[in-house]
């Protein structure tokens, strides 16, 4: 049972990556009980990072590399292969990729071919990052099975937990994580773990939820899930990706820079309103974050 944090990428106001903030944030998350870091994911603004920036993120976290799943997806397969080659010098947990996206009506065969090429190039285990609502393509257990493609793991970002569980029943050895914050408790309970964006700002809550699940205290674990879901709702009002930077600063007490447009930072009033709402909400609960 693992908590995987899709780490945000901290940007400076000039749009460059704030490397010190990234290092500090990753170290803090792991110290507080996060098991693995998912680098260059959606929360890390992966599709908006250049291949050089994706490499830079791994270089910055090279000391922690055995706790890293390195996301290499790109619409240019040459870039993907270059990132896989780059990653071969690091002792990673796995590499991962979302499917090609944007282009409509890609044949199933091409989608599978993309992952077959990745698997043939990587010396590390390969995890599928399946996020149908973002990519437009569902690389389901059925599709993998239809083409006989076996991968080492999957992060399935899907509101349908049964869809994630199907990977486990079809491929019993596959590591299966669900990527929805609102299903984190259920993912810890029934899969190999959760990849949850809110673990950026609530690492201790996730750790305590995992411990509650481990000792069979589902009721307690549910109280943590409710807290996580409430924060998701607060964050979504202002744009979840931008809000996470503010939430992390509020709960962790250090600055993690901001996002990079077109993922816009919250303006001053929005940040203040979010802070007030979150602080009031957390005050009554007496939980550590
Ligand atoms: C999730 C998104 C999913 C996290 C990543 C993640 O950032 O790489 O709102 O459930 O679609 O994919 O946070 O968010 P929802 O794995």
Automatic annotation (TrEMBL):
<feature type="active site" description="Proton donor/acceptor">
    <location>
        <position position="129"/>
    </location>
</feature>
<comment type="similarity">
    <text>Belongs to the DapA family. KDPG aldolase subfamily.</text>
</comment>
<comment type="subunit">
    <text>Homotetramer; dimer of dimers.</text>
</comment>
<comment type="pathway">
    <text>Carbohydrate acid metabolism; 2-dehydro-3-deoxy-D-gluconate degradation; D-glyceraldehyde 3-phosphate and pyruvate from 2-dehydro-3-deoxy-D-gluconate: step 2/2.</text>
</comment>
<keyword id="KW-0456">Lyase</keyword>
<feature type="binding site">
    <location>
        <position position="43"/>
    </location>
    <ligand>
        <name>pyruvate</name>
    </ligand>
</feature>
<dbReference type="InterPro" id="IPR013785">
    <property type="entry name" value="Aldolase_TIM"/>
</dbReference>
<dbReference type="InterPro" id="IPR002220">
    <property type="entry name" value="DapA-like"/>
</dbReference>
<protein>
    <submittedName>
        <fullName>2-dehydro-3-deoxyphosphogluconate aldolase</fullName>
    </submittedName>
</protein>
<keyword id="KW-0704">Schiff base</keyword>
<feature type="active site" description="Schiff-base intermediate with substrate">
    <location>
        <position position="155"/>
    </location>
</feature>
<dbReference type="Pfam" id="PF00701">
    <property type="entry name" value="DHDPS"/>
</dbReference>
<dbReference type="GO" id="GO:0008675">
    <property type="term" value="F:2-dehydro-3-deoxy-phosphogluconate aldolase activity"/>
</dbReference>
<feature type="binding site">
    <location>
        <position position="195"/>
    </location>
    <ligand>
        <name>pyruvate</name>
    </ligand>
</feature>
<keyword id="KW-0119">Carbohydrate metabolism</keyword>
<dbReference type="GO" id="GO:0008840">
    <property type="term" value="F:4-hydroxy-tetrahydrodipicolinate synthase activity"/>
</dbReference>
<dbReference type="InterPro" id="IPR053415">
    <property type="entry name" value="ED_pathway_aldolase"/>
</dbReference>
